[in-house]
Write a structure and sequence with these properties.
Rossmann fold, 4-stranded antiparallel beta sheet
Length: about 290
């Protein structure tokens, strides 16, 4: 188990930002998802020992995040939200500085810079970098030394759509080829779905549920079918479902025999689609169930 959080509570004066959250994280790529103000960044900061919890416990690699934070930080990488880098030095100088702090072979700088697509810009000053290049050098420093776990807080917020796709592909590659585990804190669900195998859903300071996406889809959502025909009302009468905007939406998986019966009776079938719910739909369903 990589991360274990138990009954975590955090007050900021009279505001209860975290209300006793519990979750565990195993190997893989996890998304910590929720709307703005849900408690995502507060959770990340407690895991990194940047702030202290009011109550509760948090562990990484079985070590206490407050008591053993120095040892934990040797084994993880981090890219904070809205990270700032020293503009007057080159990318190479910055990564060498980080590498020396982590006691890392400096040859790893070239490897990670190439892996994230910034090798050709290493000898330029960071102040000359675009927003996308800034995020790439941030990812490169978080990957130095091949950490077991990398925590990314809103890593694609400053990137254009193409840059976001490339950034996420790099994450998938490191997980696939190096076995690097990631905890990605974000509210951009359409992108997260491309890389994550598991999610932790948080809202109003509470973890509503967590686990593998496929298991949670099975728990909260239904795959459905969309049918369009020359006589949609007859389709509804025969197989059930819901008629909406010239389509019949069917939630019963065992409808094909009756549908073919309608076709034999003269109904022309224009289209039949299987519609699978996406991560955004899953998130909305979990929120609905919790209210």
């Amino acid at each position: 188990m990589l991360i274990e959080v138990g009954n975590l509570v955090k007050f900021f004066r009279n505001v209860e930002a975290l209300k006793g959250i519990d979750f565990t994280m195993n190997k893989g790529i996890y998304g910590l998802i929720g709307p703005n103000g849900a408690g995502k960044s507060t959770t990340i900061k407690i895991l990194l020992d940047l702030i202290k919890p009011s109550y509760g416990e948090a562990y990484i690699f079985g070590m206490d995040c407050q008591k053993d934070s120095f040892e934990i930080k040797k084994r993880i990488g981090v890219l904070h939200e809205n990270s700032r880098f020293p503009g007057r030095i080159t990318g190479r100088e910055f990564l060498e500085y980080v590498g020396k702090l982590k006691d890392i072979d400096l040859d790893d700088i070239e490897r990670k810079a190439e892996a994230v697509g910034i090798k050709d810009a290493l000898d330029r000053k960071i102040e000359e970098y675009s927003a996308g290049m800034m995020q790439r050098i941030g990812l490169a420093q978080s990957l130095l030394g091949d950490p077991e776990l990398v925590i990314l807080d809103e890593p694609t917020s400053n990137l254009d759509p193409l840059g976001r796709m490339e950034f996420l592909e790099i994450i998938k590659k490191f997980n696939r080829e190096n076995g690097t585990n990631f905890l990605i804190c974000t509210h951009i669900l359409s992108e997260l779905e491309r890389v994550c195998d598991s999610i932790i859903v948080i809202n109003n300071g509470k973890v509503l549920d967590y686990g593998k996406i496929e298991d949670m889809m099975e728990k909260y959502c239904r795959t459905y079918y969309r049918v369009k025909s020359s006589d949609n009302r007859k389709i509804v009468e025969r197989i059930g479902g819901e008629l909406k905007n010239d389509y019949v939406y069917v939630y019963n998986k065992d409808f094909l025999y009756d549908l073919m019966g309608c076709v034999k009776e003269g109904v022309t079938l224009y289209s039949l689609e299987e519609i699978k719910p996406d991560l955004e739909y899953l998130f909305k369903k979990i929120i609905e169930v919790s209210e």
